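2.7 Reproducibility. Because tokenized structures are sensitive to small changes in the input, we list the exact sequence used for Glycine cleavage system H protein, including any N-terminal residues retained from the expression construct. No trimming or masking was applied before prediction.
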Amino acid sequence: MAFEYPDNLQYTDTHEYLKIDGDIITIGITEFAIDQLGDVVFLELPELGDNVEAGEKFGTIESVKAVEDLKSPVDGEVLERNDQLLDAPEQIGDDPYGDGWLIRVKADDLDKLDEDMMTAEEYAEQVEGV
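Resulting structure tokens (single pass, no recycling of outputs):
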């Protein structure tokens, strides 16, 4: 199965994606990650106003197969979270790059992002071998 990785996003090696809009970062997880997890049954996300730290856990995603930590790719404050997914976590796979976003963060320092992020092509190359 060929997965989609939109070119307008950046990707982490822990399977999160970022959509950058000024200093607002929308964070979600990739189609590949959702496929690996299987049926998602529970999602835990931070509260509005919480601070997240790059490389640190900001929540968890639970499927019938596993429980995985969600890691923030950026330092910042949580502005929004996708409460719809908290009520219906199984819908995360329906539109992971659209309605399936997890949180929106006001980034503290955008300069830190570029050094660890991958393009869609780089991410696809990384996961092809899995």
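The first helix runs from residue 31 to 37.
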